[in-house]
Amino acid sequence: LGSLHYQDQEYAKAAKILKKATVEGAEDTRLAARYMRGISLLQIEKHAEGRPLLEAVLGNQKAKQYWPYAAQAMAQSFEKTNQPSLALPMWQQMLMLSTEPKPKQLAATRAGWLAMQQGDLENAESYFKQATGFGIDNQWHTMASSGLFRLFYEQKRHHELLALSEKEKGNFLESMKAEVLLAVPTAQYALAKFDDADKGFKAFLEAFPENPAAPLAAFQRVMARSNTQPDKLLDDTEAFLAKYPSSPYEANILYLRAQALSQADRFAEAETVWRKLSRLKDVELPRDVIQFELARSLFEQEKMMEAAEAYISFAELYPQSESALSARIR
Length: 330
Description:
This protein has 330 residues and is an all-alpha fold. Helices cover 73% and strands 0% of the residues. It has 19 helices and no strands. The chain has helices spanning 2-7, 11-18, 27-43, 47-58, 67-80, 84-97, 101-117, 121-132, 139-154, 158-168, 177-190, 194-207, 214-228, 233-243, 250-263, 267-279, 287-300, 304-317, 324-329. Helix 3 (27-43) packs parallel to helix 5 (67-80), helix 10 crosses helix 11 and helix 11 runs antiparallel to helix 12 (194-207). The chain is elongated. The mean pLDDT is 94.
């Protein structure tokens, strides 16, 4: 009767009826009852009662037929109670004990994610690769490929990330869509594939304009386009500053814009931007270049008194600069 309730997923009834059978009757019957009652108790959230029964099953050589399923149930139980460090060994045990591809794939996938969360990246990668190597296209393959993608992204393994992206053709978790859409052009940019990066960042910004990473994507897109379409830099920087006026990348965009204005001999506009940059604090930009270019923009506008003061200030602040002699002469 207890077995019937178990098969019908009436776990509360099964747990109650099977209790007596766990200690009475033939050993095979007791083992089966312990297994079914342990599973039933976990299903009704009585983890403290169910786990010892399954531990007993896992420790009995005569219960081998139940081992993979008992390990899986234990792993899931530990995950439900937020005990990942205890869940991981159970997934590892299931992976070792299972003989069928799908259960092994499930165990490898879950072990990979838990290992990655616990900082064991080497084993996480091994588990993910094992899970994706079965050739079974299902949710566990998707989860494993997504974990491998994130690992490559966090480790800046750009070539491998792009190869995986090409292989999987977007077969990643829906919850990672924004992450994937940003990671691919980021890798392309790092590998100097600027045209592809430009298109990728554009796609990300169109799909997720309000994402917290949008300013970063927009900044990286400006940088990518500065390599392929330098004639568009003034338009690109103007558009960025209008869209993200207070982003962490404002100073870098202003620096690019000031350089482009100077190169275009638009020194009045360049002066305004160089002055703004000179007043910014706590930014990692070449302060000597900013000071010198400010002075040059004044000189080119024939603002001789201001230019002279700016050149003198530059020479005093940066006497070792290669431009110091030029500043003194001017």
